[in-house]
Amino acid sequence: MLDDFLVRAALAGLGTAVAAGLLGCFVVWRRMAYFGDATAHAAILGVALALAFDITIFAGVGLIALTMALLITAMASGRESVDTQLGVLAHSALALGLVTVTLIPGQRIDLDAYLFGDVLTVTRTDLAVIWIGAAIIGLVLWHQWAAMLIATLNPDLAHAAKINPRKQQLIITLLLAAVVAVAMKVVGALLITALLIIPAAAARRYARTPEQMAVFAVGIGGLSALGGIRVALMLDTPVGPTIICVAAAIFAVSTITDQLRRIGA
């Protein structure tokens, strides 16, 4: 069954939706969209590293994303505002990655595939990496859920409960690096943050508890992935951006229905 490229694409989209949906809730709660951008944009530099040293794309992207995540955490206490630091890191890393990729000799590189994803070319190995990454992210969140939630919603209460908010922040940042490595093949470096925040933002309209929001975010992400692949095949459009368009449409519907419900109440 996995010889069918559409089945592999669908499974890759679902695996990415699981990872991004679960972590996306914390990205929304903590307002970390710019953290996601900085880590995701650095992924292009990871592609250049992988091509230059003949290692797998997942390894190169994961290493650079991890380095960027640690650098962001280390710089968080600097004098410059966080958004300024992240802006410099995000765009500098993207520009450096784009320049470096084009300078690698003997490589024919489809930059669009790395910028916007190419889920229809997912291999069995890619599929295994995506689902292993999603499983690791899910297990870490399952184990750390209560501590991460308390540290996110009430840092003072976290200190009283002997929970280190900075440690939880570091865990989330490292998991962001893992999501970048997992999602690169599906939606590309420029759209990873959108897959993190849009399903979670739409889920928040319907959820009554944080756990419900996480489940709904995964469901909306999965629906966006499958719907995006279907629409892209019908309209002959790029799959990665189409997935995000479907997610944005779901968010728009959730916003409209929420407003109508408020008016009715």
What does this structure look like?
The chain contains 12 helices and no strands. It has helices at 5-29, 33-41, 43-53, 57-75, 82-103, 111-116, 124-153, 155-160, 165-187, 192-204, 210-235, 239-264. Helix 10 crosses helix 11 (210-235).
As a percent range, the share of strand residues is under 5%
Global geometry: globular
Distance between the termini: 49 Å
Structural class: mainly alpha
CATH homologous superfamily placement of the domain at 5-189: ABC transporter involved in vitamin B12 uptake, BtuC
**Topology pattern, helix = H, strand = E:** HHHHHHHHHHHH
**Total beta strands:** 0
Largest sheet: none
User: Cα-atom Rg, whole angstroms?
Assistant: 18 Å
Give a nutshell description of this structure.
With 265 residues, the protein is mainly α. Helices cover 82% and strands 0% of the residues. It has a domain at 5-189: ABC transporter involved in vitamin B12 uptake, BtuC, CATH 1.10.3470.
For the structure shown, list the relevant keywords.
265 residues; mainly alpha; ABC transporter involved in vitamin B12 uptake, BtuC
How are the SSEs ordered, and which strands pair?
Layout: H1 5-29, H2 33-41, H3 43-53, H4 57-75, H5 82-103, H6 111-116, H7 124-153, H8 155-160, H9 165-187, H10 192-204, H11 210-235, H12 239-264
Helix pairs in contact: 1-7, 1-9, 1-10, 1-11, 2-4, 2-5, 2-9, 2-10, 3-4, 3-5, 4-9, 7-9, 10-11, 10-12, 11-12
